[in-house]
Design a protein that fits this description.
80 residues; mainly alpha
Length: 80
């Protein structure tokens, strides 16, 4: 379980860094709430390399979090 915790911390740091490195798209946040479907998904149809990195890191993060939860659960208490 120690290795999973180390992986979790490394993935968290990399994910935070990757999200902070993303280039802002101006008013895309406002347009996603008031705009159509095309503005919600963004005008560019292709995902950048950084976008793919974020998808992979977030998938690893979710899977690792579920594994940590499953391994950290304790056995149910014995019945009286």
């Amino acid at each position: 379980m120690g290795i999973l915790l180390i992986i979790q911390v490394i993935v968290c740091i990399l994910l935070i860094g990757a999200v902070l490195l993303q280039v802002g798209r101006g008013a895309s946040t406002g347009a996603s709430f008031g705009g159509g479907v095309g503005t919600f998904f963004g005008p560019a149809g292709e995902i950048s390399f950084l976008g793919k990195v974020i998808i992979v890191l977030s998938t690893i993060f979710v899977i690792n979090t579920v594994l940590l939860y499953a391994l950290s659960r304790k056995a149910p208490p014995p019945l009286p």
